[in-house]
């Protein structure tokens, strides 16, 4: 019980920390925020249920008024803005990524990359694109076109989520709760 | 840690948080029911007046919170200039800006503790599903406490990286950082259990 609770809380903090650090250059000189990497890791490391709860806890703190989203955004305003779809998709993305991680028999690295691409990009973009099309009153293809700006960074982050999960699986196999 | 609550106390700080949240929910629904630019311009003006009632410092902070929206304003503006649908574009932007500004207003005038108290009340029906409000509050407190701890830890890891390598710390520092988070979680769980459990 306590272990579940602290893992959920600590990974919610990890998502926040990944959004707060602008210093880490993920790829040569391209500063992209690592927040969605945190969402992917929640799923691939904690598994479906815990991962989704962790993201929900993070979102609750954002809604409560903490500026934890990348770029110091937060408060209720972000849930009325154009990227609300992505925010609502975050917990679902973590859940799907965790669900895939729990079900496949691939090695941890490949499984986590695939889970991050399907959950953290595929599922997340469906939510994000629908959200943008509603908030900005655009058709779905038009909104999808706008969302494509984030795609290269997110593919990179999915690969990184795979590599990090693989390293964790090698260093401490028991720490991968999604595979426990 | 800093919250988005405005340090400038205005009249709206004294209203109960639940009331403000209910009003915000109703107001946002109303905004999305409006389609014509003129009534939307009126609501935008009313929102601006709401900010103005808090004084200059309050209003400037409010404006600063709207800054992340400018790329969207630019895109939608250009889009509708190009398709020559100015009224439609104005309606979308006025609705978007008013909705975000109203929500920010509630955030700016409500203390974090009051907001969390409302969440706890709202989460009460979840208690039979295994989420008593106390556990939710404990989880939130753990997150708030561990964010600065993890930022420090990440900083230490980056420093030891730069001490050993001439290259800049890249994504690789995230592996020990994640591992440390998992270890912290185990230790915090043990500490909680030793002190009587998560309740």
Account of the 3D structure:
The complex is a heterodimer of chains A (180) and B (199). Chain A has a single domain, classed as Orthogonal Bundle (Arp2/3 complex 21 kDa subunit ARPC3). Helix content of chain A is 69%, strand content 0%. Chain A is built from 7 helices and no strands. Chain A has helices at 2-20, 35-46, 48-64, 84-103, 108-135, 140-147, 151-171. In chain A, helix 1 (2-20) runs antiparallel to helix 2 and helix 4 (84-103) packs antiparallel against helix 5. The longest helix of chain A has 28 residues, at 108-135. Chain B has 2 domains: 11-122, no CATH class; 130-194. Chain B is built from 8 helices and no strands.
SSE ordering of chain B = HHHHHHHH
* Count, helices of chain B: 8
**Helix share, percent of chain A:** 55-70%
Count of beta strands of chain B: 0
CATH class of chain A: Mainly Alpha
Secondary-structure element order of chain A, N to C: HHHHHHH
Domains of chain A, number = 1
End-to-end separation of chain B in angstroms reads: 26 Å
Quick structural gist:
Chain A is mainly alpha-helical. Chain A has helices at 2-20, 35-46, 48-64, 84-103, 108-135, 140-147, 151-171. The longest helix of chain A is centred in the C-terminal third of the chain and has 28 residues, at 108-135.
């Amino acid at each position: 019980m306590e272990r579940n609770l602290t893992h959920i809380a600590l990974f919610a903090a990890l998502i926040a920390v990944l959004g707060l650090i602008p210093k880490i250059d993920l790829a040569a000189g391209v500063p992209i925020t690592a927040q969605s990497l945190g969402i992917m890791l929640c799923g691939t490391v904690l598994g479906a249920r815990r991962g989704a709860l962790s993201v929900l806890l993070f979102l609750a703190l954002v809604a409560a008024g903490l500026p934890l989203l990348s770029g110091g955004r937060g408060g209720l305003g972000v849930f009325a803005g154009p990227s609300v779809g992505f925010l609502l998709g975050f917990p679902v993305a973590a859940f799907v990524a965790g669900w895939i991680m729990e079900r496949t028999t691939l090695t941890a690295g490949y499984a986590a990359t695939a889970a991050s691409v399907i959950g953290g990009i595929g599922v997340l973009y469906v939510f994000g694109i629908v959200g943008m099309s509603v908030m900005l009153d655009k058709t779905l293809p038009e909104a999808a076109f706008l969302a494509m700006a984030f795609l290269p960074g997110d593919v990179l982050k999915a690969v990184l989520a795979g590599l990090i999960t693989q390293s964790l699986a090698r260093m401490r196999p028991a720490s991968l709760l999604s595979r426990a | 840690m800093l919250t988005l609550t405005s340090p400038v106390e205005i009249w709206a700080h004294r209203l109960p948080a639940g009331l403000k949240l209910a009003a915000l929910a109703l107001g946002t629904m109303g905004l999305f029911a409006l389609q014509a630019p003129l009534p939307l311009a009126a609501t935008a003006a009313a929102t601006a007046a709401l900010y103005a009632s808090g004084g200059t410092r309050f209003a400037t902070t409010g404006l600063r919170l709207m800054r992340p929206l400018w790329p969207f304003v630019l895109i939608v503006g250009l889009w509708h200039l190009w398709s020559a649908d100015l009224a439609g574009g104005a309606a979308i932007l006025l609705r978007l800006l008013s909705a975000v500004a109203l929500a920010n207003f509630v955030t700016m005038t409500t203390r974090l503790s009051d907001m969390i108290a409302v969440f706890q009340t709202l989460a009460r029906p979840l208690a039979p599903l295994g989420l008593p409000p106390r556990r939710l509050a404990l989880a939130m407190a753990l997150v708030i406490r561990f964010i600065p701890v993890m930022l420090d830890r990440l900083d230490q890891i980056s420093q030891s990286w730069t001490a050993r390598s001439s290259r800049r710390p890249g994504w690789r520092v995230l592996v020990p950082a994640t591992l440390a988070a998992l270890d912290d979680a185990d230790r915090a769980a043990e500490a909680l259990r030793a002190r009587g459990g998560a309740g």
